[in-house]
Amino acid sequence: MNKILMFVTALALVAVLKPSFAIAGSCAIPDNATQLAAAAALAMNAERAANGRKPLHFEPRLQASALAHACDMSRKGYFSHRSPSGSKPKARLRRQGCRAGLVAENIAAGQTNPKELIQDWMHSPGHRKNMLLGRGANQYGIGIANAGKAYSHGYLWVLVVSRGC
User: Fold this and answer.
1) Which of the two residues, 157 and 87, has the higher pLDDT score?
2) 75 to each of 2, 27, 91, 146, 149, how far by Cα in Å?
3) 116 φ, ψ (degrees, to nearest 5)
4) In the chain, which end has fewer C-beta atoms inside a 10 angstrom radius, N or C?
5) Radius of gyration of the chain (CA)
6) Strand pairing of 139-146 and 102-109?
7) 61 or 5: which carries more pLDDT confidence?
8) b/e per residue 94-120 (b: at least 16 CB within 10 A)
9) Are 41 and 12 in contact (CB under 8 A)?
10) d(C-alpha 141, C-alpha 126), whole Å
11) Are 126 and 139 in contact (CB under 8 A)?
């Protein structure tokens, strides 16, 4: 992806994410969450391009699901793909009105910047696989919350990727 297209994509992402981050309610979201999410998306799509994959496109319902899960983990002090109430990524997406056939989720805690986050995920076989899904995924959403009870520093990050929503 060329630099101009990446910049325009980042600007569009900032415009779309800002309202979603504002409605997270009592969740402690970093002041620069929009910029962090945009930078993480650019880094993820750069890794996809370097590995011969097409870019994933932002989907607001995936972002809402990712943010809700990051906030839930922050407020309740857990770190898992399964919430204490038992919900999993696909069920969380259904609550957002998304009926995706393929859903994958990455979570991370403690990273303070998108570069560190994407590097960590790229060095983890399962997370790398989710980010580089070839023919399957075409959309993504990223949620970020302050670590809260789960960790003493950094952020909780949730990436949801899917095919169709």
Assistant:
1) 157
2) 39, 7, 20, 9, 7
3) -60, -40
4) N
5) 14
6) unpaired
7) 61
8) eebebebeebbbbbbbbbeebeebbee
9) no
10) 18
11) no
Residue 151 binned pLDDT confidence (cut-offs 50, 70, 90): low
Strand partners, 109: 156
**Which among 20, 165, 17 is positioned nearest to 94, based on CA atoms?**
165
Instruction: Give the neighbor-by-neighbor strand order of the sheet with 139-146.
Output: 57-58, 139-146, 155-163, 102-109
What residue has token string 């995706």?
100
DSSP assignment, residue 130?
A: H
Question: Which helix (H) or strand (E) element contains residue 16?
Answer: helix 3-22
In whole angstroms, what is the distance from residue 68 CA to residue 61 CA? 10
Average of per-residue pLDDT values in the chain: 84
- Nearest C-alpha neighbor of 158 from the set 54, 12, 96: 96
